[in-house]
User: Fold this.
Amino acid sequence: AKGAAQARGQRIDYAALPAPQRLAQITAMVRHELATVLALAGSADAIPADAAFSTLGLDSLTAVELRNRLQ
Assistant:
């Protein structure tokens, strides 16, 4: 999956990471891409890690854009 790390020229082998670190890395990547899709003025830190997408204003169009960014 392409993500924030790959956009910065880094490649992360998620499968090689210990489970807690893998979860943290993937959560950070999704939050970063979601902040970009939702055009949040702040950063990914503005998105709670446990927030449901529906509570963040994600609709079908932005969901597709997020999916495309994560692929």
Q: What stands out?
A: The helical segments are 4-7, 19-37, 60-70. The radius of gyration is 12 Å. Residues 12 and 65 are 22 Å apart (CA to CA).
